[in-house]
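Progress narrative, work stream C.
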Amino acid sequence: MAASEVQLRVEAVALDWKGNPIVVLREQESRRAVFIWVGLLEANAISMPLEQQRPPRPMTHDLIISILEEMQVQVERVTIVDMRGGTYYATLGLRDGDDTTTIDCRPSDAIAVALRSKSPIYIGEELLDRLVEEQREAAAEPSSDATPVDPGEPTVH
C-alpha cells in the first residue's frame, strides 16, 4: 500500500431511498465512506461472499478466481482510482510470480473479485477527500426543485 492510499472495507450492500443498490465502502479507522451505486446483478455478486453464500454453479466472478488460481496468479489488490462524471473507475492488481500487472475494470467487478479472493481494497487519499467533500456539498445544496424527504435507514440487501 502506498503512503497516500487508504484501505477500505465493504461495509454493506444496501438500497438507497429509491430502491437502487448501493455499495458502502468505509475507511478502516474512520467514518469516511465511498458510496457506489451498482446494478441488481452486481449487488448480488457482491452480497453473496459477504453473506457466505455460494451459488450451486460458479458465477462469473467465481470463474475469474478459478482461472487465476489455475494459472497461479494472485489478486494482490483492488484500487478505486477515479470518479469522473459520476462514474467510478477501478483496477485489479495481479501478481504472477515476480511479475505484476494492473487491469482496468468496473468497481463492482473489482469488489466482487476482491471479496472472493480476500484481497484488500484501496483508494487514494486525495480521491477519498474529494469524494467526501462532494458528498458534503451535495447534502448542503439541494437542487431548486428538490422536495425534502427523510430517506430513513437503508435496507440491507
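Work stream C, second folded protein:
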Amino acid sequence: MNRAVARISYEIIERNKGTENLCVIGILSRGVPIGRRISDKLSELEQTIVPFGSLDITPYRDDSRTDVCDEKTDIPFDINAKNVVLVDDVIFTGRSSRAAIDALIKRGRPCSIQLAVLVDRGHRELPIRPDYVGKNLPTSHSEEVQVFVKELDDIDSVIIK
C-alpha cells in the first residue's frame, strides 16, 4: 500500500508539474486516510503544504434517496480554480466517483478534477476512468474487494472475497 501511495504521488507531481494550485480530497470513508497519505507524501516530496479535505458523497448517491443531510464533508479551503485530486479506495461501477464529482461541483468550480484510486477492479457502468491507479485487480461481479487501513482498522490490507 505504501508503494502504491508513493507511486501515485510521484505521478500526480509529474502530471501537474509540481503541486502548485493542487489540493487532495478523500472520499469518505477509506478514501480519506488514503488521500491524507497522498497529501502528506506530496507535501514531503515538494516541501510545501498540499491542502487536504474530506468529502461525504452520501447525499449525492443515486442508490439512496434520503432527505436527511447530515453531511460529514470537511473541505477547509476554496476549490475554485484548483486542480482537485479526488481519492477513493476502490473504483468499481464508477457511481461513487460520479457522486463525488457532483458533490464537488456543488461547492465550486475547480480547474480540473483528477481521480486517484488504490484499487481498480473494473466493471464500470459509467464512462469514468481513474487518472492514477495503485493496483488493477480484475475481479468477477460476485467477488468483493475490501480495503483495510491502519487509521480505521489497525491494519493495511486489501482482500478479495
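Helices lie at 2-16, 31-46, 95-107, 150-153. No further action is required on this item.
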